[in-house]
Amino acid sequence: MLLFKKVSDIKKYLSEKRAQNLTIGFTPTMGALHNGHVSLINYSKEQTDISVCSIFVNPTQFDDKKDLEKYPRTTGSDIDLLTEKGTDILFLPSVDEIYPSGENKAHGFTFGNMADHMEGAHRQGHFDGMASVVKRLLEIVEPDFIYMGQKDYQQQALVKKMLEQMDLTTKLVRCPIVREPDGLAMSSRNVRLKPEERKLATLISKTLFKAKEEAATLSLKEVKANAIKRLSIPEFSVDYLEIVDADTLYPIDNFDDATAVVACTTVRVGAIRLLDNIILKD
Ligand code: AMP
């Protein structure tokens, strides 16, 4: 695996590869890698000639500076894992390389209402920070495909929207959620759960699986109400549970109001925010 830290170096290397008609797959991450990340890299390896992974803990997308400080950083073992999985390139830039003229959040994309609710309503400035860094990374790597997880449903929908507004031919590949054997969606933040919280956290995916089952017979209003009721235990604080049009992300009440439907939730378990979702109709 080749490791690049400088924008100019990786750009030069990739432009040579592009000139040889080799295709580039890109998986942006914030490190603390787990099998969810590995699955994205595997898709990239299967579908393109050169798999590029980036690790950059983006300060501008953290509304909570404590969360940024505590975000797990495991660069040494991440490099070992990426090498073992056959990743071709790791891009590991500093904050100055990504934001040479300061942490500017003016990305210039139009998201309409897509960024206003769910994560957008609960994390001030999060999607502006996300859009800035993804824009910068896309302009550096210029990939043929960008691999993003369904796990962060709203994020990948917004990146799809960004790509429509950018002068790039990059296509987004949405990759399925990788779960622990007990159903908990894999996340870099899971290691911060206390043992008791870790056990309780399985209720989130169980609730979503049950919602999918109920969606076959009940109205979406009932499905949503039941799911919120199941998550209403004293140890949890539900930031939101929304059933939305999978493309516009608008909340809907009836299955027939959208061609694809997804139920998204974020639950705080102790100090940790856990995101999960399930596609109810595709
Ligand atoms: P992060 O490092 O958390 O920013 O995530 C980097 C990418 O990995 C994002 O596109 C995430 O959606 C994706 N990802 C994170 N967890 C999972 C998971 N459990 N399954 C699939 N993809 C994931």
Explain what this protein looks like in three dimensions.
The protein has 282 residues and is of the alpha/beta class. It has eleven helices and nine strands. It has helices spanning 7-19, 35-47, 65-70, 75-84, 95-98, 119-122, 126-141, 153-165, 195-200, 202-214, 220-231; strands at 2-4, 24-29, 50-55, 89-91, 145-149, 171-175, 236-245, 261-269, 272-281. It is globular. The protein binds adenosine monophosphate. Adenosine monophosphate binds next to helix 2 and strand 5.
Fold topology:
Layout: E1 2-4, H1 7-19, E2 24-29, H2 35-47, E3 50-55, H3 65-70, H4 75-84, E4 89-91, H5 95-98, H6 119-122, H7 126-141, E5 145-149, H8 153-165, E6 171-175, H9 195-200, H10 202-214, H11 220-231, E7 236-245, E8 261-269, E9 272-281
Parallel strand pairs: 1-4, 2-3, 2-5, 3-4, 5-6
Antiparallel strand pairs: 7-8, 8-9
Bound molecules: adenosine monophosphate.
Residues 29-30, 36-37, 39-40, 148-149, 151-152, 175, 177-178, 185-188 line the site of adenosine monophosphate (AMP).
Describe the structure in brief.
The protein has 282 residues and is an alpha/beta fold.
Associated small molecules: adenosine monophosphate
- Report the β-strand fraction as a percent range: 15-25%
- CATH class label of the largest domain: Alpha Beta
Class inferred from helices and paired strands: alpha/beta
Q: How many structural domains does the protein architecture include?
A: 2
- Unreliable stretches (pLDDT < 50, length at least 5) are none
Q: Classify the fold: give the CATH topology of the largest domain.
A: Rossmann fold
